[in-house]
From TrEMBL:
GO terms for biological process: fatty acid elongation. Residues 3-177 form the Ketoreductase domain. This is 3-oxoacyl-[acyl-carrier protein] reductase. InterPro entries: KR_dom, NAD(P)-bd_dom_sf, SDR_fam. GO terms for molecular function: oxidoreductase activity, acting on the CH-OH group of donors, NAD or NADP as acceptor. The lineage of its organism: Bacteria, Bacillati, Actinomycetota, Actinomycetes, Mycobacteriales. Belongs to the short-chain dehydrogenases/reductases (SDR) family. SUPFAM superfamilies: NAD(P)-binding Rossmann-fold domains (SSF51735).
Length: 237
């Protein structure tokens, strides 16, 4: 039976691959994001619905949930990104606070707000996209993703009695998304690949497959977990 799926950040990269998997099964998929143009292009390509919504903005989320189906079978909190990629942490406290807030909002608060807004309408699974950065020590971004995994344990305990699972998929290096585009030297890219046991970068479809499993009835006893999809990359710094 067709399910109702919401994928935040679904216009590009990993979110788009996730939306594609569910759409291919005939599910009703809504993708969200801040930029209208890529969102509508992806929606047209995949045959899904686009909703412009900043997942860090409570007012926009309140408007969004009014437009969503009454029952949400699967929520995928994929929206996020690293706004301080490889930059030195600012020493000016105001700049530091702004940088941390941006990362915490995008990667942690967004999932808390979206899940809370839809909590009473969830029937199947919540899957958050975390990161290997949570275990590496990676500034505000890594701390936000670690916080996501921590908060998910509480969420899992709250939703479990209702038959709703809550899990994190934690990717390692995923090539070909906007996340790393034009930000890696060839040397850095090679070292990220060398750090895996598989000697290959992940692709968005690797993450989509993990999300699809966690959202399936086969995974109904799997909850409160972090599923690493990182080619065996070691997580030490
Ligand atoms: P992308 O930049 O392609 O995807 C991020 C998506 O999130 C974009 O579509 C963006 O759209 C959306 N987004 C960002 N902020 C918000 C917001 N506040 N509200 C709504 N949508 C938002 O990169 P990826 O596909 O690689 O990243 C997807 C997820 O995977 C992220 O959470 C990232 O942290 C995580 N990840 C990625 C890894 C990688 O190697 N690529 C590794 C580990 C984790 P818009 O800007 O229009 O809002």
């Amino acid at each position: 039976m067709a399910r109702n799926i919401v994928v935040t950040g679904g216009a590009t990269g990993i979110g788009k691959a996730i939306a594609r998997v569910f759409a291919a099964e005939g599910d009703t998929v809504v993708i969200t994001g801040r930029r209208a143009e890529p969102l509508h292009a992806t929606a047209a390509e995949l045959g899904v619905t686009a909703e412009v919504c900043d997942a860090t903005d409570p007012a926009q989320i309140e408007k969004l949930v009014d437009r969503l189906p009454g029952q949400i079978d699967v929520l995928v909190n994929n929206a996020g990104g690293n706004t301080d990629f490889d930059s030195e942490a600012p020493t000016d406290l105001r700049a530091l606070a702004a940088a941390w807030r941006t990362n915490l909002d995008a990667n942690l608060l967004s999932a808390v707000l979206m899940t809370t807004a839809l909590r009473d309408r969830l029937t199947g699974a919540v899957v958050h996209i975390g990161s290997i950065a949570a275990d590496k020590g990676a500034g505000a971004y890594g701390a936000a993703k670690a916080g996501l995994a921590s908060w998910n344990i509480q969420l899992s305990a709250e939703l479990g009695p209702r038959g709703v699972t809550a899990n994190v998929v934690a990717p390692g290096y995923i090539s070909d998304t906007e996340f790393f585009r034009d930000k890696l030297t060839e040397e850095r890219r090679a070292s990220l690949i060398a750090a895996t046991h598989t000697r290959r970068p992940g692709v968005p479809e690797d993450i989509a497959a993990a999300v699809h499993y966690l959202a399936s009835p086969a995974a109904r006893q799997v909850t409160g977990q972090v599923l690493a999809v990182n080619g065996g990359e070691r997580t030490t710094r």
